[in-house]
Amino acid sequence: METKKKGFPTAFWVCACTEIFERLAYYLGRSLILIFVTASVATGGLGLSDTVAANMQSNLTAFSYLLPLFGAVIVDKYIGARYTTPVGMFIAAAGYFTGGIAKSSAGVYAMIFLVSLGLALFKNGAIIGRVITDKSQMDPAFSMRYTLVNVGAFIGTFLVGILYKDVFAKDGVLGFAPCFKMAALMMVLGGLWYIFVCWRFLGDLGKLPFKKTLTEEEKAAEAKKKEETGTKQPLTTIEKKRIGAIFVASLFSIVFWIFWYLGYMPVYFYWAENMDWVVAGYQVPSTWFDAANSLFCVILGPVTAELWKKLAARPQGDMSLFRKTGLGIAIIGVGYLFYAAIDIMRGGEKASVLWLIVFAFLLTMGEMFFSPLGHSFISKYSPSRYLAVMMSVWGFATFIAAKSYGPVYGLLFGGKIEFKVACIGVAVVSFAAALIMIALDKKLSALVD
């Protein structure tokens, strides 16, 4: 399948649009957990503590990145990703439906398990990594894919704030159950879209495990080795170096995602008490902060995609992933300095919730310099036989971050340290990590050249 010079192939667009269904469902369900679990039983919730709710949301985030590591083995060695992807969406749909009928924490944990299991088989990103065959188009392509991902995320997080408390609420009971069932419906529709639309444009792509579908570069290298030795060769030196580079990038992604997820927590807790959430007489739903992040991703996706295209066209080429990662972490640090500035300037009074728009922009800018490019980097340099596994190593790093940010939040923002001091501390660590990443850029980039 060849990539047109003037744009991405149709297979890219239809597969990337699948992400809209998946992320709409995911963020609709994920955003609702904190509210559903802590709302009183009389209003349709479970009446449990903030800590329980935070742990449940953390587990959904974490295990939706851990289980794909096991799903990766399946699509790398046994079953084509085009078949596992819609099956995974249907399993996740069953999970969200389970959330819609949950009457206890056990029901929520069942939802978390089924959704995570479904996402373990959802390998659309790896498929896109093979749809795009021109490496110079990888970063722009994955930036555009990230835009479509966040179209779904924006719709989910924006609508949930209105749906559960206005549209689906009845006789004092909030509309949690219909919202979870809507998430289930989105996953069913997404699975059908994949079967009846994506398969049509994928040709033979994804029918076989990735181990059996080498790139042209890998076929040429393996043929040369077979000609020289007469046997199939293990990983080459350059392949081992590239795998090492993926692990190093994943290690730094842990730092990035801990601080990124950490930035959300004050919105629901510290700023919930120390900001005025009423704008023009309307009580702004807290889930709209998530929506602001997604909206900025949609806006910045095409901008950064064009930026990577222009940088790649330079004689010296594009910036490396390692330098972009350093800049992304540094931008997150600037966001925490802004948090500290808000806390200082409010002088004990409640600050306007509108200030969070600026923080959401900074959070998103750091995210766009980093998150979409991880999958692009892996698609470029991972050996095909380990493509899905390497994608999942990246996801496993996010799992570690997701399981870590809760305890880190308790340590830094649990009340023992002043909020502004904790924010400045996070910013300092962010800047230090960024400087290390940029300083090591040449050595790390040499691993993939």
TrEMBL record:
It is found in: Cell membrane. The keyword Cell membrane applies. It holds the Pfam family PTR2. It comes from the Bacteria. The keyword Transmembrane applies. InterPro entries: MFS_trans_sf (IPR036259), MFS_Transporters (IPR050171), POT_fam (IPR000109). One of its GO terms (cellular component) is plasma membrane. It is a multi-pass membrane protein. Keywords: Cell membrane, Membrane, Transmembrane, Transmembrane helix, Transport. Its main location: membrane. The chain crosses the membrane at residues 27-48, 60-79, 86-102, 108-132, 144-164, 184-202, 243-271, 321-342, 354-374, 386-405, 417-440. GO terms for molecular function: transmembrane transporter activity. This is MFS transporter. It comes from Dorea longicatena.
